[in-house]
Sequence to fold (159 residues):
Amino acid sequence: MVSQQRARGLMEHMEFVLHNILSNSRQFLGKIPRISTQDWNKIREWNKPPPSRSQQSVHGVIHHQYLKEPHALLALAPQLVEQGAKPGTFIPLLFEKSKWTIVAILGVMMSGAAFTLLDPSYRMQRLQTTCGNINGPLIVCSPICTGLPSVQWHLQFGG
Fold:
């Protein structure tokens, strides 16, 4: 269902494009303006003021958030450390496309370990070989991926 305001905006946009097509039928389609001055002004208004440029790195922003809510990120890292994650170890992360992937990445980084991302669409043999080569103490995976490559211990979360 489209709101009345959205429908009106779509109709105005269509009218603008059709007017430009009909006013110069010899013009290439790629050269026809598709955004009206009025729409550009709306976009500029939405983007005011322009966002300030941050001097912090991404990991600096994450660290700042961690300082505000340390319990949120530390929920995963201690479990990983308890299972052997530490500097010098690699932790395979096995997730389908999921918001939990970034949570797992940050948890592994906070534990001091490194990570490698695995794709559950890979053949089982490839996953097992990769996990064997990494020789990590555990694998972090989503519930969907729990039955895939067997390792000493896996931490399942998300869903």
The first strand starts at residue 90 and ends at 94. The helical segments are 4-23, 37-46, 58-68, 70-73, 77-82, 100-111, 124-134. Residues 58-156 form a domain with the Rossmann fold fold (CATH 3.40.50.980).
